[in-house]
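Work package 3, deliverable 3.1, input record:
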Amino acid sequence: MTGLTVRNLNKSFGALKVTDDVSLEVAPGELHAIIGPNGAGKTTLISQLSGQLASDSGTVNLGGRDITRMPMPGRVRLGLARSFQITSVLPGFTALENVALAVQARKGSSFRFFAPVATEAALNDAAMRALAEAGLDDRAHVLARSLSHGEHRRLELAIALATDPKVLLLDEPLAGVGGEDADAFVDRLRRFKGRLTMVLIEHDMDAVFKLADRVSVLVYGQIIASGAPEDVRNDPAVRAAYLGDEHGEAA
Amino acid sequence: MTETLTAPAAGRAPRRIAGRVKAAACLFVLFALMPPLAAALDDPFWILIGTRFLAYAIAAMALDLILGYGAMVSFGHAAYLGFGTYAVAILSSYGIHDLSLQILAGIAVSALFALVTGAISLRTRGVYFIMITLAFGQMAFFFFISLSAYGGDDGYGLTQRSSLFGFDLTGRDGALYYVTLALLIGLFALCHRIVNSRFGRVLTGIRENPVRMEAVGFAPFRYQLTAFIISGCITSIAGVILANQAQFVSPAFMSWHRSGELIVMVVLGGVGTLAGPIAGAVAALTLEEGLGALSEHWKLFFGLFLVLMVLFSPRGLTGLLEKTGLMRGKS
Amino acid sequence: MMNLFILQLLNGVQLGVLLFLIAAGLTLVFGIMDVINLAHGVLYMVGAYLIATFAAVTGSFWWGLLLMLPAAVAVGLVIEFLVMRRLYARSHLDQVLATFGLVIMANEAVKMIWGTSPLSVPMPDILSGSVPLMGPLQYPVYRIAVIVAGLAVALGLFVMVNYTRVGMLLRAGATNRSTVSALGVDINRLFAIVFTLGAVLACLAGALVAPVLSVDTGMGESVLILTFVVVVIGGIGSIKGAFLGALLVAVVDTLGGVFGPILLREVLDPSAASQVGRMLAPMLVYILMAVILFAKPAGLFGSRA
Ligand SMILES: Nc1ncnc2c1ncn2[C@@H]1O[C@H](COP(=O)(O)OP(=O)(O)OP(=O)(O)O)[C@@H](O)[C@H]1O
Ligand SMILES: [Mg+2]
């Protein structure tokens, strides 16, 4: 089980400070939710953790190893995977092929030029398992561009799972998913608890409070509170800055 | 940014792949029937021209490997034709006339050039990549222009015929033609394998969405660079054939117009299909010859054709054929 | 030796100023519209042919220059309206193909209209002759005039880009296209203006060199690729980068050919030095480009890679 430690992370876009001295301790095996209003800098933080964006200063540490300067592919191979808030898949590939590529990235070399990849059982089997875990195995042979929005969200999850992550960064996996679909998704995530360390960004407060072991609140790039869900829910600063109106709406 | 290519997704439906292999096989059979036909018409000119067509088909297919499957619009590919042609000239001046050695030499130089220029060009994207590959192609062009030992600007005539393992190739009996056809078929099989392999899937994945590929653990650069090198090497084989076909080499083989024509061939035939660019090479060269026979100002019409094709038929000749109903649109 | 150096340096600056005129439009078109235009060299050629024609008809270089300008505007507008406008939203591959087609067409059309033999443009009387520089050193007045005119245009462009509303939009557009449309600006008109401006500058460059070079169909080709090198080195979308890049490329190109062999003689024997020097000289600017790109993939002043 691997944990993630973030120390004094910063990021500015021009004059706009989007990540402001963020420190975060994600314990091995916990599900750590990060909530915050729109534009708080949640996606930016995930991008910095995953290596898609370079940080201005601060350190990121995965299971005791400093990965601050490591590019994204290297981090994935160490077991740090992310999903995207805005679906980012290979539209011309089938769902199975999308996931099989993620399996391929960790299984053996990709400098193989002759053997047909479409019939590699090892890749396809592992990909099917990841699809089943994400609840998309029945749509394995459909082109990604033809999948529905809810299916795209599940494909995002399946791809991330297929990289065999130790720490999973989920950027609003439930965005735009509602009703039964959302419940099934929450159940799925709950099953990963204890097996994976997860950082979950989510606007759906019901989901957050059902799943999270700990919650951090990000406002204007700063963590203003961090702790057990109940403590955070009752924190006056959080209520004032964020939950006050948002939670009222949700209820 | 990612190039938004109009190519249909490659390597998807197995049925479409099989269709392409069949299309290529039909082309190969037609090519094989050409020499007997030319003999029947008693016109060896057709064999000579046919060899040229086949050589360009090899080059266009090689370019498609990176342009169609990797979204790398290389505008300097004529340089590799040039390395192939000059490999023939330079080896022949040292008394070496064997085709296999010529090909090896062309490949060696091309691999090196592609490695260095590719490593620099691939740090950039979009218009940068196009302009930088163009500039490097021009650099190679100027290098051979100033190579006065081999005629510089004027080129260099080959005095001795080439052979393959002792067999004379460049007589008028079509030996070179059939060797070229064999190379084309072999290289098509190779490219077909590559695009359907693990490596090919990564390459196409990077074309579709590079960020996603990084997010599952692939660093695009090394795969793109490898594809770039493979493509350059295969293109140089076409250059070796062209030198032997013309018995003459000159920097004109590597002018930037030639690079442009290679792109035209790929797009005419259909980007990202391998078999398409083979047909595209034949179509483009036929168009040039045909227009050339009709008017001395054929280039005006060729240029106009390109402009109109882009403006009105975004999917190239395939799109054009589908539009006019000559070919059934495939899903 | 020193004299040769100064002469070549001036020649380099003159070439640099011309390259800048061509590159300025190209870099704006690339930067703002993200369109690759291979036909930009054609405009340079057309400018030279236009002034050759008008000067021949009117018998005066100055009338030729004056008439060339509106004709250049017309050429720019027509190409923009008929072709470029339809390419903005297309892939780079489409842009490459269509503008490559334009190049082929234009070269042939020029051959049909003006024939294949090179034209020449008489030098205006007041600008012919040479002026003494220092000691025995003479330099042609016309070349000095070209440098001055080029620098004046560069200055004008600099003022326009930095102190006018259109310039503000151009700068905004070069770094972030969506801002410009968000400002409620008619993007199509802005594009047409930028493209035409670039076309006129390229035509002007062609017109200015016409009296010192022979006017022929190949003239746009070599310049086009040098201009690409300039734009890539300077950074796409940057006028400042285009200016420095143009001077750098031109000076390296001019001095390298002359002084490369001389420098090489220090390390090689004379015949080898001149041999290697002659081979390396035309490749120098590309090597320069490679080195700069290796250090800075987005060019000297580029914001986007
Ligand atoms: N590449 C960028 N350049 C400039 N500004 C950016 C960039 N990416 C994000 N921002 C700005 O940074 C701020 C934080 O954006 P971010 O996407 O991280 O927020 P978020 O918390 O994920 O919001 P949401 O809940 O809407 O997903 C926003 O104001 C956004 O406009
Ligand atoms: Mg977000």
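Residues 66 and 72 of chain B are 5 Å apart (CA to CA).
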